[in-house]
Amino acid sequence: MLRPLIDTFWSADVWLPPNTTWEDIAPGPHKAVQYADHRHVFFPLPLAFVFIGLRYTLQRLVYAPFGKYLGIKDTRPRRAPNNPKLEAAYRASSKLKQPCDLAKRLDMTERQVERWWRLRRAQDKPSTLVKFCENVWKFTFHTTNFLFGLCILWNKEWLWNIDHCYIGYPHQGVTGDVWWYYMISAAFYLSLTISQFWDVRRKDFWQMFIHHVATVALISFSWVCNLHRIGTLVLLLHDCGDIFVEAVKAAKYANYQRTCDTLFLCLIVVWIGTRIGIFPFYLLWSTSVRAPMLLPMFPAYYIFNSLLCLLLVLHVVWTFLILQIAYRTIQAGMMEGDIRSSSEISDSPANSNHCTPASENHKKET
């Protein structure tokens, strides 16, 4: 029953250039090039769980001990007193609504309810060490993946001349190194999409969720349609900026203020240069202007370009937040801000992911 719907969705008239069929780009022993196998689009799913397992193994054996060595404490707030009825109300909604009515039903004062609620919410917040481990994991991946991507693309012609992303399309072969680069990148972003629901919850939760979903969709559809060349350039560009995003946060949690400030300056240069410079004026310009000159247009082209434009919108939003932090930094004389988010816990703006000096952190704790 689903076959007609699937055939309609995957119509070659939608996803491929005119006069091209799925059979034309199907892998086979007698083809002139090694085409991407569309069935491999599911390979990143089990690999994503491998990444999740690897992350928590490294967190326990490497990142957490390293963080403790740097002086980061795994401090936990005092637990809220056991109260099954309040616990049930909290699990129904973490936001305290009508504390007066709740106090009357439980024969408590409104102040007692509010105090319990504050303790219970603080109990759910991750420690600084947990947040440090999360950022070091992302820093490790982005650094490794960027170097890996740079190595395999260094001798690829489309890195130096982006027109080669379209010349000869869709009859472009996939080498083993590009295959691994694509699968590893897709698996990582898929793992972030999954783990985001129990990771540190920041104010830009849904922005990041949309970013991950759009990235996974771009990787998957571009793989199926053999548009992997432009996809590798987008991946390489994103890894470059994210290295400094995670490095700044990790330095902040370790209270290395000067390192944090220096990395933040590097972040501003790299982020604006790649996300606001190269991405729209080179990559997006290429897909929007050069591609129609070299290829006959087809419906999927507009889908891919729309997803790239969506990423650009997110880049602009995050750039605005970063520049706000830079402005406050100039005024305060030190790094005082979050990267891509103004709060780590969505309903607690006061707990922002700031690069603050050790004295400020001590004041907050006391």
Quote the average pLDDT. 83
Uncertain segments: 342-366
Bulk shape: globular
**SSE ordering:** HHHHHHHHHHHHHH
- Bin the strand percentage: under 5%
Largest sheet: none
How much helix, percentage-wise, in residues? 55-70%
Please give a structural write-up.
It is built from 14 helices and no strands. With 366 residues, the chain is mainly alpha-helical. Helix 7 (128-153) packs antiparallel against helix 11 (228-253), helix 9 packs across helix 11 (228-253) and helix 11 (228-253) runs antiparallel to helix 12. 31% of the residues are buried.
Which helices and strands, and how do they pair?
Elements: H1 3-9, H2 12-15, H3 44-69, H4 84-92, H5 99-106, H6 110-124, H7 128-153, H8 157-160, H9 176-195, H10 205-224, H11 228-253, H12 257-294, H13 299-332, H14 358-365
Helix pairs in contact: 3-7, 3-9, 5-6, 7-9, 7-11, 9-10, 9-11, 10-13, 11-12, 12-13
Structure described in brief:
The chain is built from 14 helices and no strands.
Which descriptors would you attach to this protein?
366 residues, mainly alpha, 14 helices, 0% strand, globular, disordered C terminus
